[in-house]
User: Fold this.
Amino acid sequence: MPCAYPRARMTDLEALIAGICPVVLRGDDAAGGPSALDALASDKSGWSGLPDLGARPRNTAEAAAVLRLANSVPFVVVPRGAGTGRVGGAVPERGGVVLDLMDMNRILEIDVREMIARVQPGVRLGHLQQECEAVGLFFPPDPASAKDCSVGGAVATCAGGLRGAKYGTMKHYVLGLEVVLPSGEVIRTGARTRKCVTGYDLTSLFVGSEGTLGVVTEITLRLIPKPDAAATLVAWYDDEAAAARGVAAALEVRAVPRALEFVDRRALSAVAAHFGRPEWKRHALLLVECDGTAASVAGELETIRRALESAGGGHVEIAAGPSDAETLWAARRGVSPAVTAMWPHRFSEDVCVPRRNFLEMLHDLHGIAAAHGLEALGFGHAGDGNIHASVLMQRGDDEERARAHRAVADVFRRALALGGTLSAEHGISISKREFLPLELTAPNIAAQVAIKRALDPNGILNPGKIFPGT
Ligand SMILES: Cc1cc2nc3c(=O)[nH]c(=O)nc-3n(C[C@H](O)[C@H](O)[C@H](O)COP(=O)(O)OP(=O)(O)OC[C@H]3O[C@@H](n4cnc5c(N)ncnc54)[C@H](O)[C@@H]3O)c2cc1C
Assistant:
C-alpha cells in the first residue's frame, strides 16, 4: 500500500509531476509564509493532514497522467474540489498528492433545446445555477454551500441541499460522466439522452463515491425549465414543541414545497447573533418555499399556511417580496457557519430518517446528548427527514470528545432504529467510516470493497476513505 512519499526524494517526485502536470503546489517553508499545501490539508470536517504535493490539472490528459504515474511510483492521490466537504473526503490523511480540480472550471455548454449542461468539475455550483437561470433553465440541487462548492465535489458526494424535498439530489440530474479511473484510463459513462441502459449504470456508481473510484473530469447534467414563480413562507415559534407540530402539519398537506427547512432554538440563537438580528432570537423557525406557476405557488403556500395556523403556536407570514425571502434564505444558508462560530467544538452529523420520524429523531437527539452530559442542536431539511444533528462541546478536550463520540454513536443507532440512515448527503469518508457496520452488513461491505479493489488494485486513489481497509 503506498504511503507518504519519502521526503528525501521529494524533488524527484516534483520534477516527475511537473513534467506531466505543470501546475504543481509545494511547501514553501523557506519563505516563512503559509505553504500552498496548508490550503490543501483540510476541508470543513475538522480533519486534516498535510499532503506531500499538490497538482492542479488543466485538462483530463494531465489528470490521467498523474494517476498513471501514481501507480508506477507509487503514491496516493486525493481528488479535491473546493474543500467544503464535511467528512474529510478531500483530506490527505496519508499524505501523497492532492489533485486539485478547481482549474478545470469551464461550463462547456448549456444546450437549451435538449435542456442539458456539460461542465468541468471545478465549476462552482452556484455559478452553474445562475448561468442556467439566465437562459430560462433550472439546475435544482442546492446545497447550502452552493456558492462555494464545486460541481465535481457535489457529484462525488451526491450532494443534496435545500430543494431536495421536491427535486431530489445530484444523482437525479447526472446523465453522464467523463472519469479518469485509478489506472489513468479515461472512460465516459451514461449518455446525452434522457434514457440509457447500455451496460451497468456506472454513472450511478461514481456519483457519491467520494473520490475513491475515479476522478470526475466532465459532467453532463439534466436541467429543467426555470419555474415561473417562487415564494417563501416563514413561521416563527416561541415554543419549540409548537414548531415541531408545525413540521408535522406541513408534511401532511397535499402540497410539495421545494424546501421545508427547520432551525431549532440553539441554532437560531447562533444565527441571530451571527447576522446581528436579535429579533430572530426565537425558539424555532420553519422556512417553506414553493415554486411553479404564480397560481400554483399561491395555492400551495395558502394550503401550508392554513395547516401551520391550525397547528397553532407560531407566527406565520408570507415573505413580503424577493429581497425579504432572499434575506431569510441567506440566514438559512448561514446556519452552519453561525453555529460553528458559537460552538467551535462540535460533532456535526447528517442523519436521515423517514419524514414522519423527523420530530422523534430531533427529540431523541437532545435526550441522547443529555444522557452523555452534553447539549445538542438540530436543523435541516425537514422535508427530507434530514437532520443536521450537532453534539456540542464546551472545551473540546479529550475527555469531552470521547463522551461526544459516544453520543454520536447513539444518535446513529437511534436514526437506524427509526428506519433511517447514517448520512443523507455529506458522505462517510473519514468521519463516519467506523460506524458503517451499524448500517451495512458484512457481505454488503465486502461487495463494495471488491468494487474498490477491482478499479483501484494498487490502492492509490483516496485509500482508506469510506472503507478503512482499502
Ligand atoms: C456551510 C456548508 C453548508 C453545506 N451544506 C450542504 C448541503 O446543504 N447539502 C449537501 O449535500 N452538502 C452540504 N455541504 C457539504 C459540501 O459542501 C458538499 O458535500 C459539496 O458538494 C462538496 O463539494 P466540494 O467541491 O467542496 O468538494 P470537496 O470537499 O473538495 O471534496 C468532497 C469529496 O469529493 C471528492 N471530489 C471532489 N472533486 C472530485 C472530482 N472531480 N472527482 C472525484 N472526486 C472528487 C473528494 O475527494 C472528497 O471525497 C455543506 C458544507 C458547508 C461547509
The chain has a mean pLDDT of 95. The longest helix spans residues 398-417. The first strand starts at residue 24 and ends at 25. The pocket of flavin-adenine dinucleotide is lined by residues 43-44, 78-86, 89-90, 101, 121, 143-145, 149-150, 152-154, 156-157, 159-161, 210-211, 215-216, 336-337, 425-426, 429, 462 (CB under 6 Å).
